[in-house]
Amino acid sequence: MRKFGLIGRPLGHSASAAYFTEKFSKEAINDCAYALYELPEIGALSGLLEQHPELCGLNVTIPYKREVMAFLDAVSPEARAIGAVNCIRRTPEGRLEGFNTDIIGLREALSELLGFAEPEQALVLGTGGASQAVQYALAERGIPFALVSRDPAKGNYTYDNLPCEVVEQSRLIVNASPVGTYPNVTEAPRIPYAYLTPDHYLLDLVYNPEVTQFLDYGRQRGAHTLNGRTMFVEQAEASWRIWNGEELL
């Protein structure tokens, strides 16, 4: 039995196990299983791998997308450039190879949300591992962006000093933070939503719930919105290809 799974903390919101279990059933893949492995800290990864020698691949989520890189034997050039890993392939020899499939999902999500629109500037909420992939994707599209962080050392703005005009002028706003994720469904990033317009595009990387408070506020102002489901599915399928050797390092 080939085993796969997700590491992170917390994992109660994750749909990964359900997604892959359904995939294996639909495609009659009978020799594979997927499970959630909530780690108290990233150092527990070594013990997990020792305990489960049949683990062939892992997805990585908050808060370990950056920390996990120190435990890998090799990292793809793109993941290295992004500065975050969300997919690990374990070779038959036991080597751990890191990839970033978030970027694959983000490219698809941005294309679906924006269509032919070309925002002159974007605002990225959050500065963690997912945010780094968002920044990479925006740079690819030539869209300038500013970062909002709880830590003044990491962003251009904090949530307490974000100017209203920046929100008004940033026609693409991406929530790359976990704020609003189930079970905290009444929460939303603290930005001045009154300055959103029908010309705004809001992308939330959160997919549970389907309509986050962040997206609902955008809808109330007439903005175009998209949740994280497209990104989730595309990155999951890219991970599957990597685990099956279809993607080279």
UniProtKB/TrEMBL annotation:
CDD domains (UniProt xref): NAD_bind_Shikimate_DH (cd01065)
Gene3D superfamilies in the record: Leucine Dehydrogenase, chain A, domain 1, NAD(P)-binding Rossmann-like Domain
Q: In which pathway does it act?
A: Metabolic intermediate biosynthesis; chorismate biosynthesis; chorismate from D-erythrose 4-phosphate and phosphoenolpyruvate: step 4/7
Any one GO molecular-function label of the UniProt entry: NADP binding
**PANTHER family from the UniProt entry:** BIFUNCTIONAL 3-DEHYDROQUINATE DEHYDRATASE_SHIKIMATE DEHYDROGENASE, CHLOROPLASTIC, SHIKIMATE DEHYDROGENASE
Q: Which domain of life is it from?
A: Bacteria
Q: Does the keyword Oxidoreductase apply?
A: yes
One biological process term in Gene Ontology: chorismate biosynthetic process
Annotated Gene Ontology cellular components are: cytosol
What species is this protein from?
Candidatus Alistipes intestinigallinarum
Q: Under what name is this protein listed?
A: Shikimate dehydrogenase
Write out the coiled-coil annotation as residue ranges.
Answer: none
What taxonomic classification does the UniProt entry list for its organism?
Bacteria, Pseudomonadati, Bacteroidota, Bacteroidia, Bacteroidales
Statement: the UniProt record of this protein carries the keyword Metal-binding: no
Q: Which residues form the Shikimate dehydrogenase substrate binding N-terminal domain?
A: 6-88
Keywords on this record? Answer: Amino-acid biosynthesis, Aromatic amino acid biosynthesis, Oxidoreductase
